[in-house]
Specification:
heterotrimer; A alpha/beta; B mainly alpha; C mainly alpha; A: alpha/beta; Rossmann fold; four-stranded antiparallel sheet; 10 strands; about 35% helix; C: mainly alpha; MetI-like fold
């Protein structure tokens, strides 16, 4: 897979038309994402962050403006950009290893290499031993880990995560955040995380993009200049978290 | 009781919820033992009672024996039928007809359901005739079918195939239409071709629905088989019923009815077993494609 | 262009007409050029003629009414019994365990298979016919009522437990309303089956005024146009009953939230 490329978002806007009314979702968003960085996008509900992610991965194709990855315009999905959804979306009729293998369905590798990759990634997310289990036999956290393995197995240079831990309990969420950070440090690929959890955003991201709703715009980009691996009790992190939180709350007093 | 529709998946927890609270402790303990004791056997109570009532009624001749033969007589007739080979002959013929008709109907049903589900165009062309065929019950077409096909084997095959085809097609169609969008987006993210999408996502996701259709189709096939044999055949279980009536030998009629009921039940339960084995991955059908 | 006119010229509608028209043309051609066994198949025109004759001389209307009366009595009988059994099995686990297996077994026997027995036990007259029609209506009502009541969401039932509802209260206030869509669909199905059973009963049991009678007459005098007329009329009435039932269903369930 190619080395991580620069992601260029220029003047991107998007609207939804509901019953003859035009609702702006994103308004002239511009952002540059550097290769290998961990970017968090945070904001209240309705700020368009998930929409932006879907545009980046190519599941939505209608927008104004430019989205380019490595100089190429994004015109649809691509194996180079992986995605992890909020629901694990594992296929219930496949075992865990078959689900992870789904990411290699269209890969040119030979069977042996694929098998190896699947094994490694199952190990990476700590699910060794559960290869032949079915999704319904796993807890929510485990299933989501399998989904992450699936997203990474074909070694994309960019991984997009849309509120991946939103459906999990606080303890599992905490643990998986740590694991995600470890994985990112190992894989060294670009990761873009969308979340409404400010702590999560600051803990994981090199930069935190704060978005404001109606219409979706970037309010501020906060640099998190804290070395990895990070400690949650680090005062620098805490200060930045408060700063980001203040930005969000300041935006929408009536929320 | 056998479940027919995917929308009504009942879990064991619902069973518990349906129970009423019995307050006092001794009563509760009694109820507990009562339940453990009877457990599986409860289902046999009603048949046993019916049998007893029947035996008593015929013993005391509350009704003339021509109208209500004794259970013993019916059992004897049944044994004779088995011994003389007549039963197996008729049973075999019936089963053979179902086998052919049901297979035909299922294949056609799946093909129809899939093609209408995947192509709006095909659906537009076939809808009216499909609605006519599916909304008018099979027996409604029988007189017409008899006119066109006569009363040979082809009539039976066509009627049985029709009866199986309708539920299979409808459920397959529903299944294809209700593949969760969530899964389709995953396939998109992994650049699945249309073919891959169909083979790896749409069809596996549709299999449970197809099975629901198959089970319902088998029941309908068995029902329509007996009906056609009643009305237009000179062999088979359905014919046995009519023939017994003609000879005013109700023991023959009753034994045939019992066989029909038992075989039907076995067929249904058998298919249910098969379904459970093949669909081991599916304890709760979660339509969001994600966490429970 | 009005909405109705637009729907008639829509692509969908036009495509849908293709096959039925072909069938009609084929029918006419087959009978006209004697491509199939013409003794058994009358032409569309012959059927129309027969209709005119019957309407004038054959008291078509009263025959129709007789059939409908039979149909609705049997339907009412069977549906009521079905609602009772279905509700009982749906609300009481004991009743379910008791009657379930026997009902499942009985369900496997085609309704028409009971006719020989019914003709012996109830004779050949009206009571036998109504019983048979009732039987045909009985099964679908039981099945659908049972499923409807059992599909009440666990969450709702737990609320009734929190408020210490009695069994009857739970049934009346929660189970029954929630089961209404399924019950209606069961009644709808029962209506269709009852109509078919009506025709079957008229055809197979003793002759009496009714559409089935039309078909018996035709069969005996080898007047296939009469038989076909009976079949078509039966079909039309069945279709109308179906449409009416669908309307009623839609009306009563207007306020219900449809489960996706």
């Amino acid at each position: 897979m190619s080395q991580s490329a620069v992601i260029d978002i220029r003047d991107v806007s998007k609207q939804y038309t509901v019953k003859n009314e035009v609702l702006p979702v994103l308004e002239r968003l511009s952002l540059t994402i550097n290769p290998g960085e961990f970017l968090s996008i945070v904001g209240a509900s309705g700020c368009g962050k998930s929409t932006l992610l879907r545009l980046l991965v190519g599941l939505d194709r209608e927008y104004q403006g430019e989205i380019q990855v490595g100089g190429q315009r994004v015109t649809g999905t691509n194996l180079d950009r992986g995605i992890v959804f909020q629901e694990h979306r594992l296929f219930p009729w496949l075992t865990i290893e078959q689900n992870v293998g789904l990411g290699l369905e269209n890969s040119p590798w030979d069977a042996a290499k694929k098998k190896q990759a699947i094994k490694e990634h199952i190990e990476l997310v700590g699910l060794t031993g559960f290869e032949t289990a079915y999704p319904h036999q796993l807890s929510g956290g485990m299933a989501q880990r399998a989904a992450i393995a699936r997203g990474l197995v074909n070694q994309p240079s960019i991984l997009l995560l849309d509120e991946p831990f939103g459906a999990l309990d606080a303890l599992t969420r905490s643990r998986l955040q740590g694991e995600l950070q470890t994985i990112w440090q190992r894989e060294k690929i670009t990761m873009i995380l969308v979340t409404h959890d400010v702590d999560e955003a600051v803990y994981l991201g090199d930069r935190v993009v704060v978005m404001q709703p109606r219409p979706g715009r970037i309010r501020k980009v906060v640099e998190v200049d804290v070395p990895h691996p990070r400690d949650r009790s680090d005062p620098a992190l805490k200060a930045l978290t408060e700063e980001v939180r203040a930005e969000i709350l300041h935006v929408s007093p009536e929320n | 009781m056998a479940q027919v529709d995917l929308a009504y998946k009942i879990t064991a927890a619902d069973d518990a919820a349906a129970d009423d609270a019995v307050d006092s402790a001794p009563v509760r303990r009694l109820a507990f033992y009562y339940r453990r004791l009877l457990g599986r056997g409860v289902g046999w109570i009603v048949p046993a009672l019916t049998l007893t009532l029947w035996a008593v009624a015929s013993r005391h001749e509350w009704v003339a024996p021509q109208i209500l033969p004794a259970p013993a007589a019916v059992a004897q007739t049944l044994l004779e039928q088995i011994r003389s080979g007549d039963l197996f002959l008729n049973f075999g013929i019936s089963l053979g007809r179902v086998a052919v008709g049901f297979t035909l109907g299922c294949v056609l049903g799946v093909v129809l359901g899939v093609s209408m589900g995947l192509s709006r165009r095909v659906e537009d062309y076939l809808s009216p005739i499909f609605n006519a065929i599916s909304q008018v019950p099979v027996l409604g077409w029988l007189p017409l079918a008899m006119m066109v096909l006569g009363i040979g084997e082809s009539l039976k095959f066509v009627i049985i195939a029709h009866a199986s085809l309708v539920p299979v097609a409808i459920n397959t169609l529903k299944g294809i239409r209700s593949v969760p969008r969530n899964y389709i987006e995953v396939a998109k993210a992994f650049q699945f071709s249309k073919r891959q999408l169909l083979r790896k996502v749409v069809f596996p996701a549709t299999v449970p629905a197809i099975f629901v259709g198959l089970r319902y189709g088998l029941t309908q096939a068995w029902l329509s088989l007996v009906t056609v044999e009643l009305l237009a055949s000179s062999e088979g279980l359905g014919f046995m019923i009519v023939w017994g009536r003609q000879l005013f030998q109700l023991d023959l009629v009753l034994s045939a009815i019992i066989i029909v009921g038992v075989v039907g039940l076995l067929l249904d339960r058998g298919l249910a077993r098969l379904e459970r084995r093949l669909l081991r991955w599916q304890p709760v059908w979660d339509l969001t494609g994600g966490g429970t | 262009m009005s909405a109705i006119a637009a729907s008639f010229t829509s692509l969908r509608f036009r495509r849908g007409l293709v096959v039925p028209l072909l069938v009609l043309v084929a029918w006419e051609l087959i009978t006209h050029y004697k491509l199939a066994n013409v003794h058994l198949l009358a032409s569309p025109t012959a059927v129309l003629k027969s209709f005119a004759v019957q309407a004038k001389e054959g008291e078509l209307f009263s025959q129709l009414l007789a059939s409908l009366r039979r149909d609705l009595s049997g339907f009412a009988l069977g549906s009521l019994a079905g609602l009772l059994l279905g509700s009982a099995m749906g609300t009481s686990r004991v009743a379910d365990r008791l009657f379930g297996p026997s009902f499942d077994a009985a369900k496997q026997v085609a309704v028409f298979a009971w006719i020989p027995l019914i003709s012996v036990w109830f004779g050949n007259g009206e009571p036998a016919k109504v019983v048979f029609i009732g039987l045909a209506a009985f099964y679908p009502v039981v099945v659908n009522t049972y499923q409807g009541i059992r599909s009440v969401s666990r969450e709702h039932v737990e609320v009734t437990r929190a408020f210490r509802f009695s069994r009857l209260q739970t049934f009346r206030k929660v189970a029954l309303p929630a089961a209404l869509p399924a019950i209606f669909s069961g009644l709808h199905l029962a209506l269709i089956y009852a109509w078919l059973a009506t025709l079957g009963a008229e055809y197979l049991l003793a002759p009496a005024p009714g559409i089935g009678n039309l078909m018996i007459d035709g069969r005996e005098s080898m007047a296939m146009d009469k038989v076909l007329l009976g079949v078509i009329l039966a079909g039309l009435i069945g279709f109308s009953l179906n449409a009416a039932a669908a309307r009623v269903e839609a009306y009563f369930l207007r306020w219900r939230v449809r489960n996706a």
